[in-house]
């Protein structure tokens, strides 16, 4: 029988959750609705005492949770998912307000929570046994202990559950820090989890920029899982070195999409454009550089332009809207910097205006394509994290592969071509953690997700990702030696 709704869950008041209890603070901040610029509800700002109390509660909870059989842990996580499904409309409404996403995409993210948690409940930790005449060696995997999850603002729900689910399934306990830009859905998600999970197993602390360093400095937090920028990831890794914390860092990307000359232009061009503009480009694995074979460059670009002109930008519930606003003012200003640089350098705007219209009523940016800017330009070299993408022609396959790999990042990449075998051969040469053939970037909980180069350290999701939450534990059992019998 599925759990029913609780009358105690109020989607207009928000608390930190420590040891299974709601907790406020002396200071609060507010998120901003990016479609209007209006302030949202108060959120408590956690401090060092809150971190210490959460760690103490996690320490108490860990031995019992780690000793709980994995099947029972999965059963409780599934029970939480069933309870959560009763509130999908409320979570969708809330996600629309804090992120500005079009409702259909907000709804997809809300439903993704169940998919991410559900898939992790189908996984098991591997166990390896080797035996010879002398001994039996068994390799098992044990939970690390207390995990600190530092989560981003672009997909606050999915990227929170993407850390919570593997941590809990493997027997860890977890303290979640949502982004101060989008704290609401994650605070409510963890509050709801208290209806099912033991106190201290999953906790949440909202706060400001001072809170993350409290996580990385605390000697009893065993691991930090962080999704965010390369610059912040480097600071986290440096801080975690002081206590030799385990770290998983999923950082920025500058994904290349290579379009081979045999594609069906009418079919593929809109897909490539959508890969660049989905979620207004605010995706770590969005397509950020598009390389089109010179023989089809002009017709392919024209088809992308045609599709891009049809994209409607607006508020979550506007009819037919595909793209919402940039989520926050800080990122909005960064994105505008790419428009300013491109305009000042005189590069060609194939579609979209060189000037971002600042209406004062939300952080909206129209999707924009830059036609053949030079190598070395800001729009080629750096990640905009917004709806502006450069296209370049290519003629030599080995050269375009070098161009695609000529970056300090390596998160995702795409190859588009009718000859799938050949597209895979190109994909195998791309220096990226996830390569997609004939699709834009669509990470899945079924597969390990991580980056090469400065796009991160380690990874999560899939069976391999479970090991990121574990220590190896090897048992060597030596056999009793038998004394040789004397010969008669």
Automatic annotation (TrEMBL):
KW Lipoprotein (keyword) present: no
Enzyme class, broadest EC rank: oxidoreductase
Pfam family name, one: Aldedh
Catalytic activity: an aldehyde + NAD(+) + H2O = a carboxylate + NADH + 2 H(+)
Family membership: Belongs to the aldehyde dehydrogenase family.
Family matches, as SUPFAM superfamilies: ALDH-like (SSF53720)
PROSITE patterns: ALDEHYDE_DEHYDR_CYS, ALDEHYDE_DEHYDR_GLU
E.C. no: 1.2.1.3
Record protein name field: aldehyde dehydrogenase (NAD(+))
Alphabetized GO MF terms: aldehyde dehydrogenase (NAD+) activity
Active-site residue numbers: 250
Gene3D superfamilies recorded: Aldehyde Dehydrogenase, Chain A, domain 1, Aldehyde Dehydrogenase, Chain A, domain 2
Residue ranges constituting the Aldehyde dehydrogenase domain according to the UniProt record: 29-471
Keyword tags: Oxidoreductase
Keyword Oxidoreductase: yes
């Amino acid at each position: 029988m599925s759990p029913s709704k609780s009358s105690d869950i109020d989607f207009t008041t928000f608390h930190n959750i420590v040891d299974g209890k709601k907790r406020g603070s002396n200071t609060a901040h507010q998120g901003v609705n990016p479609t209007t610029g209006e302030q949202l509800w108060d959120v408590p700002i956690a401090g060092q005492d809150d971190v210490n109390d959460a760690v103490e509660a996690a320490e108490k909870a860990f031995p019992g949770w780690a000793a709980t059989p994995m099947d029972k842990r999965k059963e409780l996580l599934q029970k939480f998912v069933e309870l959560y499904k009763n509130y999908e409309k409320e979570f969708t409404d809330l996600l629309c307000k804090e992120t500005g996403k079009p409702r259909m995409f907000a709804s997809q993210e809300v439903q993704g929570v169940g998919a991410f948690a559900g898939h992790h409940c189908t996984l098991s930790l591997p166990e390896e046994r080797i035996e010879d005449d002398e001994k039996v060696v068994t390799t098992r995997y044990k939970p690390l202990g207390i995990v600190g999850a530092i989560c981003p603002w672009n997909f606050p729900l999915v990227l929170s559950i993407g850390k919570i689910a593997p941590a809990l399934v493997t027997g860890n306990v977890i303290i979640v820090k949502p982004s101060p830009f989008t704290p609401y859905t994650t605070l409510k998600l963890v509050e709801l989890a208290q209806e099912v999970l033991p106190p201290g197993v999953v906790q949440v602390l909202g706060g400001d920029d001072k809170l993350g360093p409290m996580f990385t400095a605390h000697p009893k937090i065993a691991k930090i899982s962080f999704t965010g920028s390369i610059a912040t990831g480097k600071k986290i890794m440096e801080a975690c070195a002081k206590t030799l914390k385990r770290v998983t860092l999923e950082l920025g990307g500058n994904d290349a999409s290579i379009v081979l000359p045999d594609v069906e232009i009418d079919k593929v061009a809109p897909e490539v454009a959508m890969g660049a503009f989905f979620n207004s480009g605010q995706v770590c694995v969005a397509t950020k550089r598009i390389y089109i074979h010179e023989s089809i460059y002009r017709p392919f670009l024209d088809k992308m332009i045609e599709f891009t002109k049809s994209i409607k930008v607006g508020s979550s519930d506007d009819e037919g809207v595909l793209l919402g606003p940039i989520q926050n003012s800080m990122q909005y200003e960064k994105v505008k910097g790419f428009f300013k640089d491109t305009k000042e350098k005189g590069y060609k705007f194939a579609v979209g205006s060189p000037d971002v219209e600042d209406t004062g009523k939300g952080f909206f940016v129209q999707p924009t394509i830059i036609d053949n800017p030079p190598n070395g330009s800001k729009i080629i070299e750096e990640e905009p994290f917004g709806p502006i993408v450069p296209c370049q022609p290519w003629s030599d396959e080995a050269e375009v592969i070098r161009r695609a790999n000529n970056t300090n990042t390596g998160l995702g990449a795409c190859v588009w071509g009718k000859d799938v075998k050949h597209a895979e051969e190109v994909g195998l040469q791309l220096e990226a953690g996830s390569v997609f053939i004939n699709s834009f970037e669509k990470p899945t909980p079924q597969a390990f997700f991580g980056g090469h180069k400065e796009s991160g350290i380690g990874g999560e999701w899939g069976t391999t990702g479970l090991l990121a939450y574990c220590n190896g534990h090897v048992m060597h059992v030596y056999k009793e030696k038998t004394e040789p019998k004397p010969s008669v």
